[in-house]
Structure formats: C-alpha cells, structure tokens
Amino acid sequence: MSAAHEARLPRAQRPAPIRDRVDGVLLLDKPRGLSSNHAMLTARRLMGAAKAGHGGTLDPLASGLLPVLFGEATKFAHDLLEADKTYLATLRLGETSSTGDAEGTLTPTGGSLPDEPALRAALDRFTGVITQRPPMHSALKHQGRPLYEYARSGIEIERALREVTIRSLELLRAEGNTAQIRVACSKGTYVRTLAEDIGEAAGCGAWLADLRREAVDSLLIGEAVSLEQLEALPLAERRAQLAPLDRLLQRLQQIELDAEAARRLTQGQRLRVAPRTDSLPERVRVYHADRLLGVAMFEAGVLIPERLIAAPADC
C-alpha cells in the first residue's frame, strides 16, 4: 500500500505503524516545499523507526541534504548542528525582497546589473569572518516565539549582529539578472542575508531565489536518497540505505579498548589509558571489537565518557 493511499484511509483502517529500534543515519535529499520536520517524520514512518531526529533545519523553500538520525544516532545531532555546511544558491539581481526570498514582495532597484568582474569583486568582500544580522523572517526565537511570527504581525525585533565564517564563496554562473554561487560556511550563516548583502555590495540589490544544501561536514548530497526512492523499496532495503552511527564522527580519532576497559567505560567509569596515547586529541570515538561504544573526552591521560551507545538487545 502506498503512503498516499494509506493517508486516504480512515484512521481506524490504517495499518499500525512499525516502531522498531533502528540505529543509523539516512542522508535524505529533502524536496523544496516540505519542512524539515515533515520530511523527518515521513522518513521515520518509512523506516518503521521508534525514534528519529534531524541534523540541521532546512527552510521549506530550500532543498538538499538533510541528515535524518535514527535511534542512537540522535545522540550526535549536536555534532551536525555545529558542523560547516555547503550550499548552492541562486541570486536574483536588480530586485529586493521584503523577506529576502521568493515569498516576499519584490521591488526593482533600478540599479544597473554588475558585469562578472564586478560581481566577483563583490563576492570577495564576504569571505572570512563577517557579521550578519539575523533576518526577521527566520526561525530564530525571541521570548519563545520565532521571529517570523513577529514579522507577519508587522513587529520589528532588535537583533544583535553575529559573527559567522564564510570558508569559500565561488561564482559558478552569471547570466542576465541571475547569479549562481557556492557557499561553504560555518554554522549559523544565513545565506538569504548573504544574498541581500552581496546585492547591496554590487549596487543592484538581490534576493535568494533558490537554495540547495550540498554538504554537512563530510556528508554529501551525492550520497542522498529521496523520499520517493525510499518509498519504492521494501522495508529491509530501506533500512539498508542507512549509514552506521560513526559516519557522523569521521573527524574524530579512533581508539580501541579491550573487553575489560570497554565494560568499565560503558558503565560510565573513567579510564586511565597508556602513556603512549597522550597525544590523543580532546575528543575521540571509542570502539571494542569494531563496535562503536561512543564518544569520550581525553584529559590528562584519562578517558571520560561523554555520549555512550546503548548496546543492541542481542549483544
């Protein structure tokens, strides 16, 4: 039975949802027009998973990579929220938008469109550490309410400037009133605000016409699957699309523990490790017999459990 047919059935006639413990990471290609939470809930249903979350919200008007975390993988959502992101952005030049994107009221600026060298010069002004003022049409909260709710009521809230880092900013295409750029940036970067600021620097105005997320840290859109692709598969093959939990932790150094040390660590005990590992970084991923135990902090020769993975019931 397809999801669309199932949704048309009266609730009492719908099959009971499967709610298994499912652990892993789904690299989902979120479609434009769907909220991140809706996409995550749909993926959870298709996977028959008891617990799910996602690693970084994408606006409904944006598409692209949405890491969906199942079961024990949700313990590492913070790592994804802190990670750098890469976006493919399309800018419309010569106009401004009241919201910075296609949902707003568009106003021609009357400014002449920049040629490619002038546009590249404008982009160069926004690499490195920059300051941004969060847009009113955003999910950032003030007194428990998202800013966009105030904006829809015509209320302007004072927003403090924040520092973000633009790792790289590449002009891919410039044709007429359209420019396509690739942005690699730190967490908290508003690409919509960046588009507006680039338009101002170029002297013509601009708004964000399209946004697609291509990467979250080392996770890439080329590895992602769509909801339609998932729905076409039987359950076992859907779950086979999941990457293991440690796919989220590849930047951390790996250490292996023997059985006794692993037992003590998983009980929450601190471990003093051999002096030869004193060069370990502050944070490491810990294994026993090729099974991820979790993440630990390394301080003065001692491993301190940070986030531990619950063993499967059959272990």
Structure described in brief:
This protein is an alpha+beta fold. It has nine helices and 18 strands. Strands 1, 2, 3, 4, 7, 10, 11, 12 and 13 form a nine-stranded mixed β-sheet that branches. A five-stranded mixed β-sheet has the order 14-16-17-18-15, covered by helices on one side.
Description:
The protein has 315 residues and is an alpha+beta fold. It has three domains: 3-83 and 219-247, 2-Layer Sandwich (Alpha-Beta Plaits), CATH 3.30.70; 85-216, Pseudouridine synthase, CATH 3.30.2350.10; 252-308, Archaeosine Trna-guanine Transglycosylase, Chain: A, domain 4. 22% of the residues lie in helices and 33% in strands. The strands form four sheets. Strands 1, 2, 3, 4, 7, 10, 11, 12 and 13 form a nine-stranded mixed beta sheet that branches. Strand 12 and strand 13 form a beta hairpin. Helix 4 packs across helix 6 (191-202). It is globular, with a radius of gyration of 23 Å. The chain starts with a helix and ends in a 7-residue tail after the last strand. 31% of the residues are buried. Mean pLDDT is 89; it is low at 1-8.
What characteristics describe this protein?
315 residues, alpha+beta, Alpha-Beta Plaits, Pseudouridine synthase, Archaeosine Trna-guanine Transglycosylase, Chain: A, domain 4, 9-stranded mixed sheet, 5-stranded mixed sheet, 33% strand
